């Protein structure tokens, strides 16, 4: 949003409780003084990141480069302008505040192979700014207060604010903080045969079993099952059956994602479960619940595709 300081110096952020029929109720609010953030000597407009990256998920968000910020800071604090000495494409030196800073001496980590880091002069300037005690990027925790006339604390809000002057240059796209989406996978398991299964019932004086195999992910109500191998007298059964299970996998949490709808609610709630594949051998019964003979649990995270994704 666009603001005009000092006219629009106070930012009010409210947290509401959404209602379907009645008006939404306010849980609490917090007030931010934008004018103080703009004129403080510690430059609280946009927090400084630990590295100057020109691409990637941690790319530079400010519309002023570290070198431009350093020059502006020196001018504001009545210091001399920084002296720049570019040495080569991987090294540079800046003299500021009576001290000499060289990239090869202050940064021991090698240049990234994917070329995300910016020019050496910009990286040295960022190091100087961090040493000067300017505000770094962080997530602040603010206290929520009740409606007007009630100063009681009603909760905490974690947030960050970027205050970008329009005259300083083009505004970069905002940081994408949308929830990470799970990756869709398809699991295929082939069941050939069952050997030496326990026989759980007796027919005409002989131990027999009507065997079948079912397969499902832990926490899922959907299960796949084979056909029934009737009248097995030795505990062996042949199937040649393939299971196909589609599921959503959160690669950051290493969990399987299930969207379940609560009772008397239209909204679905996301549940995370360990990616455990359960394979069960059962004996089919006609007039009572099927008998579970045995179960095998396989942790899908132990497969190389899940480990090195």
From TrEMBL:
Its main location: membrane. Signal peptide: none annotated. One of its GO terms (cellular component) is membrane. The keyword rRNA-binding does not apply. One of its GO terms (biological process) is membrane fusion. The keyword Transport does not apply. Residues 167-309 form the C2 domain. PROSITE patterns: C2. It is found in: Membrane. It is a single-pass membrane protein. This is C2 domain-containing protein. It comes from Parascaris univalens (Nematode worm).
């Amino acid at each position: 949003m666009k603001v005009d300081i000092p006219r629009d110096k106070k930012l009010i952020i409210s947290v509401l409780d959404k209602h379907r029929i009645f008006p939404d109720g306010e849980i609490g609010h917090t007030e931010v003084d934008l004018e103080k953030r703009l004129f403080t000597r510690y430059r609280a407009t946009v927090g400084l990141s630990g590295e100057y990256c020109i691409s990637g998920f941690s790319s530079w968000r400010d519309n002023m480069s570290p070198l431009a910020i350093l020059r502006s800071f020196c001018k504001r604090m009545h210091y001399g302008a920084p002296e720049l000495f570019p040495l080569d494409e991987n090294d540079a030196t800046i003299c500021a505040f009576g001290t000499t800073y060289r990239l090869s001496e202050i940064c021991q980590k090698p240049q990234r192979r994917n070329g995300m880091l910016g020019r050496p002069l910009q990286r040295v300037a960022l190091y100087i700014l961090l040493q000067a005690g300017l505000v770094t990027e962080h997530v602040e925790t603010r206290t929520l207060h009740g409606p007007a006339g009630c100063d009681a604390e009603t909760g905490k809000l974690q947030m960050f604010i970027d205050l970008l002057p329009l005259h300083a240059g083009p505004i970069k796209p905002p940081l994408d903080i949308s929830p990470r989406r799970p990756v869709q996978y398809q699991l295929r398991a082939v069941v050939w045969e069952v050997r030496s299964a326990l026989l759980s019932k007796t027919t005409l004086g002989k131990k027999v079993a009507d065997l079948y195999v079912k397969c499902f992910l832990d926490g899922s109500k959907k299960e796949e099952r084979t056909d029934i191998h009737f009248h097995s007298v030795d505990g062996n059964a042949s199937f040649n059956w393939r299971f196909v299970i589609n599921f959503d996998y959160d690669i950051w949490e290493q969990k399987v994602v299930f969207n379940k709808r609560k009772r008397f609610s239209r909204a679905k709630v996301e549940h995370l479960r360990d990616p455990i594949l359960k394979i069960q051998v059962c004996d089919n019964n006609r007039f009572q619940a099927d008998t579970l003979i045995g179960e095998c649990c396989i942790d899908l995270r132990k497969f190389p595709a899940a480990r090195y994704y």
